[in-house]
Amino acid sequence: MTMKTRLFALFVTLGLLAVTAFAETATDIRHRMEQRLPQIDAFKAQEVLGENNRGLLEERKPGSGSVVSDENRDREAVYVLIAKETGASADSVARARAKQIAANSKSGVWVQDEAGAWKKK
Question: pTM for this one?
Answer without folding.
Answer: 0.79
